[in-house]
Specification:
By secondary structure, the chain is an alpha+beta fold. It contains three helices and three strands, in the order ββαβαα.
């Protein structure tokens, strides 16, 4: 399985959108300073995720969430 996820800092000031195979492990990577893009704003928590059977579907959803319309969807639904 593949996941598209949205994580947020505990204070809600920063968000990150990504995809992975193992969501729990990926969150641990973000919180362990192993991901360059998120290492300065810890700790992180998952605020939304979706599961996919096909990697390209997870990547497409990630790209959508990073688009303007995807950002609007996040604001309304998450």
């Amino acid at each position: 399985m593949y996941y598209t996820y949205i994580i947020e800092t505990l204070n809600g000031k920063h968000r990150f959108i990504g995809h992975c195979r193992n969501l729990k492990s990926q969150l641990n990577q973000h919180n362990s300073r192993n991901v360059k893009a998120t290492r300065d704003n810890r700790p992180w928590r998952v605020i939304y995720s979706e599961k996919f059977k096909i990697k390209n579907d997870a990547i497409s959803r990630e790209k959508y969430f990073k688009s303007i319309s995807g950002q609007k969807w996040i604001e309304v639904n998450v």
